[in-house]
């Protein structure tokens, strides 16, 4: 009899293990590729103006360096203004409708950049590209509807690695596209916008038929698999057992802005955003300023970004395995310090180019850890949605500073002021990460004590991440 019970128990464990593997594999196969392409193209359409610049954009439109910088700045002003509203309406409209729609619309506007003939036309396009792409951070919120906290960062890293890949992909595409210079009356800079924007529109149309609204509406999951995901999300406090807890509330929006861990991570987001967008927009210009031709510079941007994509995923796997978001961010900041220090301390162009293999991966690997840290340490849904939007708003505010640092304040080829600023910011990222880890650890100890002293009720999910039963991720 005992042997029979043991055998049944083993069978149950095996069935659960098979179910678990099947569920996450299905989600990874159906959702992650679409989301990765979505993020890759959003970053590509936002930053390929850097490739278009060295392909002759400024000459074609007869604009100065300052006017170019203003165009970049306008993109981020519009982006920041639409991020929070986009996150708050995402669930109401349905991510399966909202995300593909904005993808098609920004793709159309990005394509139109290739046919503008004036500076004011470029400004209008940059504004709407930024405004429409303000909904892009919603993909992190979307993923949090499907994956529990301990599985989230690796998935986030897969599409954040797309940001690195977009840098590599953009360089390769631009090198090929510039061969079309003069075809059908369009310059090579114009063709970069037309071809890459058209790809985005096509992918947005396909996404309508693939992305599910939620786990319960996913056609590729059976009833047992849907129930399993819902149970896991409730256990992990990603989904509330009471639907009213996840309903919209302005007070929850306010609590997100008042959370110390959100504020500290937001500061790191800003510091990292300056480096992220400085490198995303200006790496082609940086490489060209080292003495390479425009065509060679397009290709030479590829290897550092390709390495960055691999490092980003590897860092996320380590972070998920050992649950060490803060340590990963500190590690990334150290790599950034080494990269920016090398660029600043050397006058040898080969060393300066080699420094990009440190500064770019170090900068990009921090983003998934920050996104997971924010998502993991905020609940319920509206507070988490606000927290994520705030983080990306800070990142893109950093982008505004980056456009001026590299575009007007700090001239090539040394970019001395910009490099010194990024070096200081890299140190500050590590320090704020350490302080946040200390704060979260202290909060978890206090919560553990409250649970032991029975000073709280297990039924406290309305408190969200303030609940003694909610353990902060480190």
TrEMBL record:
Keywords, alphabetical: Membrane, Transmembrane, Transmembrane helix, Transport
InterPro entries: MFS, MFS_dom, MFS_trans_sf
Signal peptide: none
Localization in the cell: Membrane
Record's GO cellular component terms: membrane
GO molecular-function terms, A-Z: transmembrane transporter activity
Keyword Translocase in annotation: no
Major facilitator superfamily (MFS) profile domain sequence ranges: 31-445
Membrane-protein topology: Multi-pass membrane protein
Annotated transmembrane regions: 23-44, 97-115, 121-144, 156-178, 190-211, 262-283, 295-319, 326-345, 351-373, 385-407, 422-442
Protein name as catalogued: MFS domain-containing protein
Species the sequence originates in: Mycena sanguinolenta
């Amino acid at each position: 009899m005992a042997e029979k019970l043991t055998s049944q128990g083993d069978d149950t464990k095996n069935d659960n293990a098979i179910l678990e593997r099947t569920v996450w594999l299905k989600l990874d196969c159906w959702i992650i590729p679409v989301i990765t392409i979505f993020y890759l193209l959003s970053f590509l359409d936002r930053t390929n103006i850097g490739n278009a610049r060295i392909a002759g954009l400024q000459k074609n439109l007869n604009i100065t360096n300052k006017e170019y910088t203003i165009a970049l700045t306008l993109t981020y002003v519009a982006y920041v203004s639409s991020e929070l509203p986009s996150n708050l309406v995402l669930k109401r409209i349905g991510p399966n409708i909202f995300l593909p729609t904005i993808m098609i619309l920004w793709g159309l506007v990005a394509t139109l950049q290739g046919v503008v003939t004036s500076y004011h036309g470029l400004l209008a396009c940059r504004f709407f590209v930024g405004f429409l792409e303000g909904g892009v951070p919603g993909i992190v919120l979307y993923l949090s509807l499907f994956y529990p906290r301990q599985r989230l960062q690796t998935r986030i890293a897969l599409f954040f690695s797309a940001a690195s890949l977009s840098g590599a992909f953009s360089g390769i595409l631009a090198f090929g596209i510039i061969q079309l210079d003069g075809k059908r009356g369009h310059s090579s800079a114009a063709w970069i916008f037309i071809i890459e924007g058209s790809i985005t529109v096509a992918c947005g149309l396909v996404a309508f038929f693939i992305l599910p609204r939620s786990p319960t509406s996913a056609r590729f999951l059976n009833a047992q698999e849907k129930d399993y995901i819902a149970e896991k999300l409730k256990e992990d406090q990603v989904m509330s057992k009471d639907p009213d807890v996840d309903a919209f509330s302005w007070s929850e929006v306010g609590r997100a802005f008042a959370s110390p861990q959100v504020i500290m991570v937001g500061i790191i987001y800003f510091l990292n955003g300056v480096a992220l967008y400085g490198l995303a927009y200006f790496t082609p210009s940086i490489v060209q300023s080292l003495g390479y031709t425009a065509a060679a510079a397009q290709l030479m941007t590829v290897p550092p970004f390709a390495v960055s994509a691999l490092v980003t995923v590897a860092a996320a796997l380590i972070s998920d395995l050992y649950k060490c978001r803060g340590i990963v961010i500190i590690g990334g900041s150290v790599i950034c310090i080494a990269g920016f220090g090398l660029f600043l301390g050397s006058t040898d162009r080969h060393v300066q180019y080699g420094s990009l293999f440190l500064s770019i991966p170090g900068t990009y690997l921090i983003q998934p850890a920050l996104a997971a840290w924010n998502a993991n340490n905020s609940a319920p849904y509206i507070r988490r949605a606000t927290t994520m939007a705030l983080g990306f708003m800070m990142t893109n505010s950093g982008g505004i500073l980056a456009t001026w640092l590299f575009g007007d304040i700090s001239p090539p080829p040394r970019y001395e002021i910009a490099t010194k600023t990024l070096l200081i910011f890299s140190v500050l990222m590590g320090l704020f990460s350490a302080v946040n880890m200390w704060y979260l650890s202290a909060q978890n100890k206090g919560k553990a004590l409250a649970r032991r002293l029975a000073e709280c009720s297990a039924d406290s999910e309305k408190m969200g991440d303030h609940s003694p039963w909610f353990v902060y991720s480190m």
